[in-house]
Amino acid sequence: MAFQHGVFNMTIEVGKSGGGFTVQSGTASLGVGSLNVTIAEVDLTKSFVEITYYSTSSSSEVNKARVNAELTTSTNLQLTRASVSNTATIKWQVITSK
């Protein structure tokens, strides 16, 4: 796990649902920059990321407060945020079809 310009707090839970997919989830805090989260290996053709986040940003520019999430490899979730002066709390899930 690597991060730049941010506060890092994370928990990971790996579980299985009864509905034909697996879910990995966690929470992270991120200021400015990127955060790489190591996850259990997934099939990129069967997986997607879902995030929710909040911050106390007073920025009028939505793009600066937004958090982007991307599966960059089968074992890496990258969270990225533009330049703002506060920290966002991000809840993420990587969902993979069986």
Radius of gyration: 14 Å
Q: Tell me the number of strands.
A: 8
Strand order of the largest sheet: 1-4-7-6
Discrete helix count: 1
CATH fold node name? Immunoglobulin-like
- Element order: H for helix, E for strand: EEEEEHEEE
N- and C-termini, Cα separation: 26 Å
Proportion of helical residues: under 10%
Supply the helix-strand structural class: mainly beta
- Unreliable stretches (pLDDT < 50, length at least 5) are 1-12
User: Structurally, how many domains make up the residues?
Assistant: 1
Task: Give a quick rundown of the structure.
With 98 residues, the chain is mostly beta strands. 4% of the residues lie in helices and 56% in strands. It has one helix at residues 62-65, and strands spanning 2-3, 11-16, 21-30, 33-38, 47-54, 67-73, 76-81, 88-97.
Features:
4-stranded antiparallel beta sheet, mainly beta, Immunoglobulin-like, 98 residues, 1 helix
Describe the structure.
It contains 1 helix and 8 strands. It is mainly β and 98 residues long. It has one domain: Immunoglobulin-like (Sandwich), CATH 2.60.40.
Please give the structural blueprint.
Elements: E1 2-3, E2 11-16, E3 21-30, E4 33-38, E5 47-54, H1 62-65, E6 67-73, E7 76-81, E8 88-97
Antiparallel strand pairs: 1-4, 2-3, 3-8, 4-7, 5-8, 6-7
